[in-house]
Amino acid sequence: MRVWCQRALRISLLEVRQVLSHPVEWIAGLAVPLFWALLMSIAFGTGIMTKLPVGLVDMDRSALSRETIQALDAIPSIRLERRDSSLTADEDLRSRRTYGTITIPKGFEEENRRGLGAPVVLELNKTYYAIGTILEVDIKTALSTLQMTKLAVKRTAAAGGTFTENSGHLRATLPDVWFLGNPSFNFVAYLLPTFVPGLMALGALLAFVSMLAREWREGGLRTFLKESGGSATALVVGKLAPWLLFWLLAISVWTAGFAGWAGWGAAGPLFLWFTAGWLLILAMAGLALLVVAISPTWVIALSASICLVAPTFPFTGFSFPLDAMTPGARAFGELLPLTHYLEAQSQIWVMNAPLDAIARTQMTLALFPIICFTAALLILPFRIRRWKKAEALAAGLRVAEAQVPQEENSSAMGFWKTFALTLRASFLSRDTIAIFGVAAAFYLVFYGWPYGTQQIENIPTGILDLDRSGASRRLVNALDASPTTRLTFVLHSESEALDLFRRQKTDVLVTIPEDYSESLARGENTTIHILGSGAYPVKARAVQSAAAGIISDKKALLDNASLMTPGTPVASLEGAAIAAPGLLVTYRFNEISGYGNYTVPMVGPVILQAVILMGIGMAMGGWLAGRPRLPFMQDVMRRPGARGSGSSSPSGRLPSAGCSTSKASASGSATTAPSGTRRP
């Protein structure tokens, strides 16, 4: 064991020297991912959306419209921009100068005075889903508050009494939502705990793959094997150790900074939050080793890692719940380490889950590095022998090539010939086709997969029924019938329901208060409480929206029934008959409010751009490092200004015409000369 440790230590020291001698490697594998994580942290600022431009068309120009505008203008998330006509406002909405349009119709005050309740019209650009949701919730809340105030004032004037008494007797049933760990729905707390660890995991994976494939790509494997005494485990552990130490430290600093310096805290044991981050990084190391061990070329190893991990954020369920996905997408999401890390983070950060529940999640997360490392170490010795033979073959090729005098390429190729040879080399290379063809198509289909159902449905919802009345049972049945919710339990014990919620047996907990039916019978206000996790706020928002629609329907039925019942008190009739400013919401450019319609068109061009850039970078890098270089590539290097524009981005390495060692070159195409070797 002592000898093995000494060998692993020698490999680690050799790896550190290699990293320090390759500035591009540590910049790309260490500095760039941290830069993007820092940039992401800075980008969200305070985390609260403020002063979003919204068009306003006041066609009534009355006292009530001015009062309504004043209430809307007080919303921090909105910056009202007045427009003279609906045509101008619609043009601004179409050109993305505003995110929505509020229209107060003509006759607004007169219709409301007559009790008809002419609605305020809100048009939202739902291609900006998150912005549209924030605007809709804030405007609905502001108008609901205005509505209750107006009704309370009218009841006070008509029936006497105090304003406070009348404001409590409006038969308004409100769905109140509370996000554990993020009560104000701050985007910093919502997005950064997902994006920053995800970026670190992606950066660590790319660093691990690049480091593990370096000797495969550039040569030098025999030096490492000599230092490790031929031990594959000592070689792997020694090479991974410096990188693991760095990324384990990086994710630990992030966790401590978010929970401590940023002030978000941790409801559960903070140490287990650290262990979840460490297991995530170890899972990335194991995955990188497995991908390198099974990939036919180092280019495919790197591109496959990117294709697998980069677009996996939607599959974790943080933006679109796993329960709403198709069974295939949900099953794939369960196979991702980041999914289980986010679950563990939620348990510790906001849920204060019992230790046995946290332990089960962390044991699941620990399976990823265990399985990946075991499988990779079983395959790796066979691959190392092949790489060693290929490196020896490439070394012989370089010796043979050095003995061949370099011939001056007297006839320079033109632009179109260079371009044609580039296309030919591209289509004859499996690496290039894998990136530009397969990867682009895979990305576009893969990223849109989780959003195939478009709508949020089947959210596991628990009911805490403290009223145990016929009215509460009718509300439970209505929630059960909603496609948004999937009832997991109906309990009457608060401690039991909270325990199941903290164990994540349900994602949202709806509480019906014990005076629910009595308040309805008396015509008093009541509140339905909705409790959700701040780590997955989309779920609670969806249940809140469903509950609001159900409650509005129930309230309308009660009001109509009271109007048709003889002997009903005048105050109750008045409260049901008087209407105040309502809201009519219209979704534009994404009429079904679909997640797929919102995400895929915006991300698609970014995906294509990223794939093309990745392919160009890796392909050109492999081509320039290849030995022997193609004749037209040598011409491009000698005349980069005149010939370089004719070469696009292939990584194909066609044998040089007339070269006696072309067969050996094709056989050893996976290995190239060391990066420090000068080439003509």
Annotation keywords:
five-stranded mixed beta sheet, 10 strands, alpha/beta
Helix content: 55-70%
Number of helices: 27
Distance between the termini: 47 Å
User: What is the approximate shape?
Assistant: globular
Unreliable sequence segments: 165-171, 556-565, 570-581, 648-680
Strand content: 5-15%
Number of strands: 10
Radius of gyration: 32 Å
Mean pLDDT: 77
Largest sheet: 5 strands, mixed
Query: Strand pairing plus helix content: what structural class?
Result: alpha/beta
Strand order of the largest sheet: 2-1-3-4-10
Write the layout of secondary structure elements.
Layout: H1 2-20, H2 23-43, E1 52-58, H3 63-73, E2 78-82, H4 86-94, E3 100-104, H5 108-113, E4 120-125, H6 129-159, H7 163-167, E5 173-180, H8 187-212, H9 214-218, H10 221-228, H11 232-261, H12 270-294, H13 298-309, H14 327-334, H15 337-351, H16 355-402, H17 415-427, H18 430-448, E6 459-465, H19 470-481, E7 485-491, H20 494-502, E8 508-512, H21 516-522, E9 526-533, H22 537-563, H23 570-577, E10 583-588, H24 595-625, H25 631-638, H26 640-643, H27 662-667
